[in-house]
Amino acid sequence: DKGNYRHYMAKEIHEQPEVIGHTLSRYLDLGAKKAKLPDGAAIDFSKLTRLVISACGTAFYAGLIGKYWFERYARLPVEIDIASEFRYRELPVSEGELALFISQSGETADTLASLRYCRQHGLTIGAVVNVPESTIAREADVVFPTIAGPEIGVASTKAFTCQLAVLASLAILAGRQRGHLSDAQEAELVGALAEAPGRAVQALKLEAQIERLAPSLARAKDLLYLGRSTNYPLALEGALKLKELSYIHAEGYAAGELKHGPIALIEENIPVIVIAPHDSIYEKTVSNMQEVAARGGRILLVTDDKGGEASGLGHKDRIVLPEMPEILSPIVYAIPIQLIAYHTAVFMGTDVDQPRNLAKSVTVE
Length: 365
Ligand code: M6R
Description:
This protein has helices at 8-14, 16-27, 57-74, 83-86, 109-120, 135-139, 158-177, 183-194, 196-204, 207-218, 231-246, 282-294, 305-310, 329-348; strands spanning 28-29, 34-35, 50-55, 78-82, 97-103, 124-129, 142-145, 222-227, 249-254, 272-275, 299-304, 318-321. The protein is an alpha/beta fold. Helix 2 (16-27) packs parallel to helix 7 (158-177) and helix 9 runs parallel beside helix 14. The longest helix has 20 residues, at 158-177. The mean pLDDT is 95. It binds 5-amino-5-deoxy-1-O-phosphono-D-mannitol. It catalyses: D-fructose 6-phosphate + L-glutamine = D-glucosamine 6-phosphate + L-glutamate.
């Protein structure tokens, strides 16, 4: 049931404040200001030597963001790869490592094969899944559920932000267990994460503005998305979403990688979407953005008030979110990124819920 929405995807984008809240309630103890494990999950991060993550598509990008969090907040080294590569590359693994598989459907063939590889090699298996009765959930030792509810649109939206909510919570928990976060630091991060649903509501208010940008984006043949740190995987996610929904070619890049090749593409007909909240890495991203501007590139900056002012660009093409703690930005900035792809595709008249050549669940390799 699409309710009052035109597409399942629109409904699922708008459900995010609620389902992120449901998911966080399983992983955060707001009274104690601590991260917790969901019911039935037992895992000790303190003695782990490494975390190995594998997934496909959007779930893989959630894992990439998780890598930054586990390394930053828990000093836990992370190895991550897309499942179609992971399953055949013969990664040396050893006991004392946790393997984590991320999947909305819990049925993705490559992800399942990667899980079985790690099982054969004696690793503990964790699964971040949205479908609790799925094969991946059943074959895992520990299940970390996302409480996104059924996701019908082929493009993953609410499952992605719920995966991020789970990974951020687990990284905080791991940080405490491994002695890298003080009680005060944990309380601050938990308090920040708890703001996600409210921030998501604010992000959804940008929809009308984003809809107005769609016609000009739809004229492009190519688009670039740039970001750094945790917003680099979000740039990859933005490009994937736009490709699968609107069939416009797009690539995501780490902003710092621009001058190693892709800057040669810059001209006014290739819009560049820069994801840059005013955080610890903002200055670096903005200097990459100015290189684009200097070469006549058309920029759409997704930022906050401070970031907008410090950018040196005009007000024109700017999507402005409220300022928020750094841990929140990939979760909340995912929403305008989804809306850009959604409205561009709607404007172009493609089949948003069922894009050509794609299946919701990829059960063959
Ligand atoms: O069900 P899964 O999370 O394992 O699916 C993984 C990918 O197939 C999926 O995220 C795909 O990339 C989406 N269509 C992206 O919107």
